[in-house]
């Protein structure tokens, strides 16, 4: 209920602050600094080196070896790529963003029917607060587990817009297929048995979706949409807002690069579990979202994560005297614990897992 929410800045929805035209609260502004600039990478990088044709990743395709080599190099050097021919039509992707826009445009009262549940972290709310002195992220989100299906918390799935549930279900089916093809292709690109990452993931690995809104912000020089971070997932699939050209940045060798929006493409990045499983060969890319004063931005992210109980560690075949084991094994519980310990110190979980 709106009345029962406390009125401090940490529990306020960013959309409300923006709609009221209030000044950006201090709690969202980074201290003693401004956000470092990002550059445009060469168009060759996004149109060739980091562009993966999904239809060529399956073993029956004749040009698979080329595409696998490209995938290998993208994941080793950058930890991300854009994917085309992934089976979801542009029409469908537009619909996915549309239902998201329509949800966030609903009256607050309606959205609050989907309020986040403390026990499952599913539902609608502002970006989470991990430690008291943390600078906050300028976004609100609707977080919904879609797989395994029995973990869906339908009580917080929007009833409006009418097509929301149907579209999300269809998205989840495509994501499942995509995840399997990626995990198999990643293994083959390393010369491993194709189901080795799939097994590590487990049948009941989860897929969580996050619908995000980044309202217009009058202080883009000081306010992050999302602070620099790497994802907990093994693989994250992102649908960016095609109407907002700049938002997501990735980091490589201390330099920030803008991620361009390619119509019809999805952006895929690896998370920490993939870096662990690949014994550090593939990278979990550090990324951030910047805000802008002109337009609000929407995005839909899907985080694919191994089964919660699985102790995920580097694949034995990737450990040798030349390439000693780089990370300890980790399951969801220890990951979360390490996250709460490292985040306030500005460190990464991967640093804590290094042997
Ligand atoms: O909205 C985006 O473009 C990316 C968001 C993100 O990195 C995240 O939610 O982990
Ligand atoms: Fe992320």
TrEMBL record:
<dbReference type="GO" id="GO:0016491">
    <property type="term" value="F:oxidoreductase activity"/>
</dbReference>
<dbReference type="InterPro" id="IPR027443">
    <property type="entry name" value="IPNS-like_sf"/>
</dbReference>
<dbReference type="Pfam" id="PF03171">
    <property type="entry name" value="2OG-FeII_Oxy"/>
</dbReference>
<dbReference type="InterPro" id="IPR026992">
    <property type="entry name" value="DIOX_N"/>
</dbReference>
<keyword id="KW-0560">Oxidoreductase</keyword>
<dbReference type="InterPro" id="IPR005123">
    <property type="entry name" value="Oxoglu/Fe-dep_dioxygenase_dom"/>
</dbReference>
<protein>
    <recommendedName>
        <fullName>Fe2OG dioxygenase domain-containing protein</fullName>
    </recommendedName>
</protein>
<comment type="similarity">
    <text>Belongs to the iron/ascorbate-dependent oxidoreductase family.</text>
</comment>
<feature type="domain" description="Fe2OG dioxygenase">
    <location>
        <begin position="205"/>
        <end position="306"/>
    </location>
</feature>
<dbReference type="InterPro" id="IPR044861">
    <property type="entry name" value="IPNS-like_FE2OG_OXY"/>
</dbReference>
<keyword id="KW-0479">Metal-binding</keyword>
<keyword id="KW-0408">Iron</keyword>
<dbReference type="InterPro" id="IPR050295">
    <property type="entry name" value="Plant_2OG-oxidoreductases"/>
</dbReference>
<dbReference type="GO" id="GO:0046872">
    <property type="term" value="F:metal ion binding"/>
</dbReference>
<dbReference type="Pfam" id="PF14226">
    <property type="entry name" value="DIOX_N"/>
</dbReference>
């Amino acid at each position: 209920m709106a009345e029962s929410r406390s009125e401090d800045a940490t529990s306020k929805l960013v959309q409300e602050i923006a709609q009221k035209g209030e000044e950006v609260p201090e709690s969202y502004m980074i201290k003693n600094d401004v956000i470092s600039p990002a550059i445009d990478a060469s168009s060759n990088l996004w149109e060739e080196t980091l562009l993966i044709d999904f239809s060529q990743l399956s073993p029956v395709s004749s040009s698979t070896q080329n595409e696998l080599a490209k995938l290998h190099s993208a994941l080793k050097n950058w930890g991300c790529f854009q994917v085309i021919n992934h089976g979801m039509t542009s029409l469908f992707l537009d619909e996915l963003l549309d239902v998201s826009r329509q949800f966030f445009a609903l009256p607050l009262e309606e959205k609050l029917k989907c309020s986040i549940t403390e026990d499952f972290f599913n539902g609608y709310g502002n970006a989470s607060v991990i430690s008291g002195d943390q600078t906050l992220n300028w976004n609100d989100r609707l977080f919904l587990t879609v797989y395994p299906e029995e973990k869906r918390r339908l009580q917080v799935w929007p009833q409006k817009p009418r097509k929301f549930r149907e579209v999300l279900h269809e998205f989840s089916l495509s994501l499942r297929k995509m995840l399997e093809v990626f995990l198999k292709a990643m293994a083959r690109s390393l010369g491993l048995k194709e189901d080795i990452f799939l097994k590590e993931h487990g049948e009941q690995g989860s897929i969580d979706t996050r619908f995000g809104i980044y309202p217009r912000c009058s202080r883009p020089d000081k306010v992050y949409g999302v602070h620099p971070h790497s994802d907990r997932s093994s693989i994250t699939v992102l649908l960016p807002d095609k109407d907002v050209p700049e938002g997501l940045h990735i980091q490589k060798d201390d330099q920030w690069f803008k991620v361009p929006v390619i119509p019809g493409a999805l952006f895929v990045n690896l998370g920490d579990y993939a870096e662990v499983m690949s014994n550090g060969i593939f990278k979990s890319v550090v990324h951030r979202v910047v805000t802008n004063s002109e337009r609000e931005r929407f995005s839909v992210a899907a985080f694919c994560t191994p089964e919660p109980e699985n102790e995920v560690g580097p694949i034995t075949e990737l450990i040798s005297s030349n390439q000693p084991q780089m990370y300890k094994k980790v399951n969801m519980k220890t990951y979360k614990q390490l996250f709460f310990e490292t985040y306030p110190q500005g460190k990464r979980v991967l640093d804590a897992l290094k042997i």
